[in-house]
Amino acid sequence: MNNSQLLSDTLAELKRSTGNYGNVVAQRKGLLGRFEHLAKRGLRKLILRHLEQQREINQLVVRALEELVNGARAQGKITAEPQETSAPEQHNLIDYLRLTADSQYALARNRLRKSILDRLEGCTPDGATPAEMSGYFGEAALRFGVTIEMLQQYVPRGAQGKLLEIGSNPYFLTLLLKESFPELDLMGVNYFEGIFPPNSMQQQSVIDPRRRLSEVTFFHADIERHNLEALANFDICLFCEVLEHLPFDPAWALFNIVRTLRPGGLLLLTTPNPARLENLEKMLRHQATFSDPVSGYGIHGRHNREYAASELVDLCSGTGLTVLEAKTIDVVPTIYSRSAEAKGYGAYHIIVARLDGVPRLIRPNWLYRSFTPERLTSRTPLTPS
User: CB 233: neighbour CB atoms within 10 A?
Assistant: First the structure.
């Protein structure tokens, strides 16, 4: 298959996914019963915000690929060298960043994405329908797959122990964890303000045609306010797609999570990459910034801060973790994904770190301002009373 055909196929797939968003978002408004009650302040706000943001990203990628398909590059003239006299906003971004094509990597990543979609087919939290959930896990599928792959590199097959999943709702990653690591004891942490008492154990049913999981248990707590220290001695903690939503005290939240780990325990963190290729394209074309719009679902319904790779490493290291691996991954694989990920332009950061010492609370200057030194060194959270 030549480069032009690969670009055309990728463009067609993105157009189909972009076109389906309106129906998915419209269908979500029909949630009923107890799940609707929960979703109003929890799952629904995050899924809708994620879908709206990802639709914008996909539309941007579609426009960029259309230019490639219709231009000289789509006719087979692919070069990795930019013209030295061209400014980035006047030149193709792929050339300027010296990204190279790798169709085999794109095919392999798309196979992984499809396998995750197949494994999650028909799955949903109780009270929702698979159709209502499909848009969310359709966009998150590759991230789920890479998360499982990364864990398999560090956690032996058949390993026993305890795993804590921060923000486990709507439990798609939980299902994949149960399938891939059946001997691990899983627990989630979720927060639905005003629904359950803080620091309480709760359960929710899950519909899974493969019968991997029928009910999940989660600790009800706001990780920026409520102490998790009572949940100590976990072997693994997943902190996926939550950090960017924290508006008040992210360093305390990370410290709060890390102290649930036993010595030598692993933390796997994922969060959006502000330097993702789609953001660079928007900013160089003077179309938009990568900041999230104001959300109708409140301060937690948007990305309050996205982090550079060096900031994440600094935050983890300051909290007492040893970073074992840090890289970026894409959402929808294209022929340039491998090169973009390697250069730090993938859609998500993914970090694996190990607790080798004692958890520490350090609030770095690049993350906090307008606080007194006493407040920044306080071990209490910087949240509104």
Answer: 12
Q: For 8, how many CA atoms within 13 A lie in the half-sphere containing its CB? A: 10
Neighbours of 211 (CB within 10 A): 6
Paired tokens of 27: 């269908």
- Choose the most confident range, by mean pLDDT, from 64-78, 202-216, 273-287: 202-216
- Proportion of the chain in helix, strand, coil states, percent, rounded to 5: 45, 15, 40
Q: Is the pLDDT of residue 67 over 70?
A: no
- Residue type at 242 in one-letter notation: V
| Assigned domain for 382 exists | no
**Are the C-beta atoms of 249 and 375 separated by less than 8 Å?**
no
Amino acid letter, 1: M
Residue 136: which H helix or E strand, with range? helix 130-154
Instruction: Using alpha carbons only, give the angle 325, 139, 143 rounded to the nearest 5 degrees.
Output: 15
The model's confidence at residue 90, banded by pLDDT at 50, 70 and 90, is: very low
pTM (2 d.p.): 0.77
User: Does residue 53 form part of some domain?
Assistant: yes
Instruction: Please give the tally of structural domains in the chain.
Output: 1
Q: Is residue 219 part of a domain?
A: yes
> In the Cβ-directed half-sphere of 175, how many Cα atoms lie within 13 Å?
27
As a whole number, mean pLDDT of residues 35-44 equals: 44
Task: Note whether residue 186 is domain-resident.
Answer: yes
Beta carbons within 10 angstroms of residue 274's beta carbon: 19
DSSP 232: -
SS (H, E, C) 321-365: EEEEEEEEECCCCCCCHHHHHHCCCCCEEEEEEEECCCCCCCCCC
Report residue 375's pLDDT band, with 50, 70 and 90 as the boundaries.
very high
Residue ranges making up the domain that contains 292: 3-377
Query: What is the C-alpha separation between 179 and 265, in angstroms, rounded?
Result: 21
Asked whether residue 153 carries a pLDDT value surpassing 60, the answer given is yes
